[in-house]
Amino acid sequence: MSQPKAVILVSGGLDSTTVLAIAKSLGYDCYTLSFDYGQRHRAELIAAERTAKELGATEHKVVNLDLRTIGGSALTDDDIDVPEEETGGIPVTYVPARNTVFLSIALGWAEVLGAQDIFIGVNAVDYSGYPDCRPAFIEAFENLANLATKAGVEGQKMNIQTPLIDLSKAEIVQLGDKLGVDYGLTVSCYQATDEGLACGKCDSCRLRRQGFAAANMDDPTRYQA
Q1: pLDDT attached to residue 104
Q2: Percentage helix, strand, coil for the chain under 3-state DSSP, each rounded to 5
C-alpha cells in the first residue's frame, strides 16, 4: 500500500521543521513548500531547503510571491523596523493575509498531487498574536478548502493539519528532539544575516530561546556576535 501524500509548509524555522518531522513519523510521503515572498530574513529559504532534504522530503518546491508590492509588515517593508522589545497587540511583523495566501497555494498543489492533507506549523500558545494562527482561522480555511476544490466536491476531504497548535514552545522542541530534529539546521530569526546568524532580540528569537530554556535543552542557535 502506498504512503498517503501530504503538502508541508516549511519556512526553515523551528516550528515548521518539527511539523515536517511529525508528518514523516506518521508515514506521509512529504512534499515541502516554501515561499520567496520578499521577506527580510531570506536565510530561511536556505534553511527550509536544507531541513527538507535532511528530513527526506520527496520534493521541495519554492514559489515566488512578491508581497513587498503591498508591504504592510516589517518583514516585507524595509521602512518598518523589526521590533526588539515586546509590544502589545498584533505586532508589525504580521504579514497581511500571509497564511491565507500560503495555504491557498498549498491547497492547489495538494489537488495536483492527489494529497488530502496539508500540514502547517501554526501555534496558538507561544506565538506572536497573529490572527492567522488561531484555531478559528484553520477551521474556516478547511471549510473553504472543501467547498472550493474539485477534490472536496467529489468527496475527498481536504484536511488542514496543525499538530503544534496547542503546544508550548518547550513542548515543541521536546517533541522534535524525540523525533531526531537537528534544530541547529533551522533559522527562526526575523532579521537573520545571510549566513543565518540570529539577532537574539526579535520576538521570534525570544520565543525560541525561552522554549529551549523551558525544555532544559541546549539552544543550538547561532547568534550574531
Answers
A1: 98
A2: 40, 10, 50
Coil vs helix vs strand at 205: helix
Angle at 29 between CA 26 and CA 34, to 5 degrees: 105
pLDDT, tens digit, 9 for 90 and up, residues 85-106: 766 788 899 999 999 999 999 9
Query: What are 5-52's pLDDT values in tens digits?
Result: 999 999 999 999 999 999 999 999 999 999 999 998 889 999 999 999
Q: Looking at the domain assignment, is residue 223 inside a domain?
A: no
Q: How many domains does the chain have?
A: 1
Alpha carbon separation from 44 to 34, 86, 150, 216 (Å, rounded): 9, 23, 33, 25
CB 35 within 8 A of CB 12: no
Range of the domain at 121: 5-214
SS (H, E, C) 123-167: CCCCCCCCHHHCHHHHHHHHHHHHHHCHHHHCCCCCEEECCCCCC
Euclidean distance between CA atoms 49 and 30, whole angstroms = 13
Is 225 domain-assigned?
A: no
Give dist(CA 69, CA 222) in Å, integer: 31
* CATH number, residue 45: 3.40.50.620
Evaluate whether residue 222 is within a structural domain.
no
- Cα distances from 99 to residues 103, 148, 158, 180, in angstroms, run 6, 17, 17, 27
Number of Cβ within 10 Å of residue 224's Cβ equals 13
